[in-house]
Amino acid sequence: MSTSPTLFTDCEPLIDILLDRLDKRVVVGLPLGLGKANHLINSLYRRAREDASISLTIFTALTLEKPRAGSEIQARFLGPLAQRLFDDYPPLEYAQAVRSGELPENIRVVDFFLQPGQWLGVPLAQQAYTSLNYTHALDTLIRQGVNLILQLVSPLETEAGGATPSPTQRYSLSCNPDISADLLDRRRSGAMPIISVGQVNTALPFMHGDADRPASDFDYILHGEAVQFPLFSPPNKPAGLNDYAIGLQVARLIPDAGSLQIGIGSIGDAITHSLLLRHQHNALFQHLAAALDGPREAPRELHLAPFDQGLYGVTEMLVEGFLKLIDSGIMKREVDGAVVHAGFFIGSPLFHQRLAEMPAALRDKIAMMPVSFTNQLYGDEAQKRKARSGARFVNSAIMVTLGGAVVSDGLANNQVISGVGGQYNFIAQAFALEDARSVITLEATRTRKGKTLSNICWEYPHTTIPRHLRDIVITEYGMADLRDKSDAEVIAAMLNICDSAFQPALLAQAKKAGKIAADYQIPLPYRHNTPERIAKSLQPAFNAGQLPSFPLGSGMTAAEEHLAVGLSVLAPLAGNTLSMLRMVAKGIGYRLSAADIASLERMQLAKPTGIKEQLYRALLIGALASSARSQSAPDAPDG
Questions:
Q1: Rounded Cα gap, residues 237 and 553, in angstroms
Q2: Non-local CB neighbours of 565 within 8 Å, separated by 6+ positions
Q3: Model's pTM, two decimal places?
Q4: What is the dihedral of CA 534, 540, 546, 550, to 10 degrees?
Q5: Residue 630: enclosing H or E segment and its boundaries?
Q6: Do 368 and 343 touch, CB atoms closer than 8 A?
Q7: Which member of 41, 54, 148, 492 lies 3.0 to 4.6 Å from 24 by CB, making a disulfide possible if both were Cys?
Q8: Which residue from 364, 371, 352 is spatially nearest to 31, judged by alpha carbons?
Q9: Res. 70 pLDDT band, cuts 50 70 90
């Protein structure tokens, strides 16, 4: 094995060498999400598409694609935004072939985690999906005979021209040591005869931890201006009142000197902001939390004081909120010189900007590690147990059954929404560690085509986490502590955090099944779980700017942020003509703010021409008016 990689500035001769060395039988491990070497995999895919004698298997996860508009009004919003954020990101050609159903027979694409919601109804993606815990993907790759890694890397220093780097040159796996670090360790030890190729992207920050690798870990390096591209950076989504109701409750569960894992999305952003309120504006934090409790009994073991010793982050994904928690001094408890150990990252334009601008000494306290380290206790278990004290592993779900089983990755018909990822791993850790807890968050309801449904259900054909691992579940209406509870106690606790419109039917099902006493009644304080109660508790703070729609910023313009909040109100109504007409009526005659006018101009609806544009204008104004009055308040259930 050479001590220095061979450098290339052109994909094609490098692909020639790879196909020759692998005898046209290629099983490539392509990192999850951001770490994909787009130019290399596209070139390799094209060769296999044009030459049926090449056998190509691509084993990957979270294949990123430019967002698609589902309607004309969405297209008006997404068009300029996507052009600005994604047009220079080279599309992955294998993904386009999977979506169109035109993947050649000599090429296989196996995904173990799908971009959430983007591959529903795509037969090739659904059929080739492999359901795996994140930590099991490494062993699956090995059994599948992976013989090539194609990884985006960051150089410690830019190589000059085509000169061969010195043996002391280092590269960082940056955003994705998650599985690659363990594969490279096996390669280095001689346990795996795998070819390793890095594609340099100078937009990636050089990250330390196990992401920091010597040049000898790579056989070949592709670099140069021709293969540079901007990072995939989706904007943050708006956080609504329900997100904050959940976030404020989660923030009360995090002990000082504890350990934290949270996920991506608006709930995760609201959790971050709630932790900042607890630390920096404690009186307001406690006031809002008490307002949410109302007359009900407050949960046990609450942590309300500002942070003194601070938190340590151990997480599969380095989410944007962690950067703010580091900056604020909340995340400062060090373990082996790091305040965060994380497996991968992807984020908004502001995330990448914040990471790049963070002082080097502070950024070096973020150690990027394989998921074999972050997601499980195996390997130096005694040290991990000591480090992960007071752990709170917070993950989101799409549904939870009344018995406590969690649905996070798929639908009743086995269509895959996303994947298991590391959710099971962290929940298992919560039960393996002495003082840890698993926290599942979800909104109590969802609205589709104008009809509101409960996310707390009696049963569901597909589950991600079995009910014997039930622990804490939080909706906007409260917290259900399920650990060590009997089935009847679990059902009673889950009913307390349901939307009240659905409580009677769910209680009747439990009684019919004999799982709760026939004379049981939901306590009176829990029978008023309505959007109006949440709005009454939190709307004043939202109106005062204390609960911002984008607590971490967004990566969008001010007009786009205003639009994104309005469109989030509109999206659940799409497909329901009556609901859409009601929204149109709401928009007629509404007094426009300066932000509304700027939004209409951004959507080219300031001066509508024709009936269709006039309807679009009124519809959008209605959505903006609704979002201004009460974020996230859903319509009442139909029927």
A1: 9
A2: 238, 549, 624, 627, 631
A3: 0.94
A4: 60
A5: none
A6: yes
A7: 54
A8: 371
A9: confident
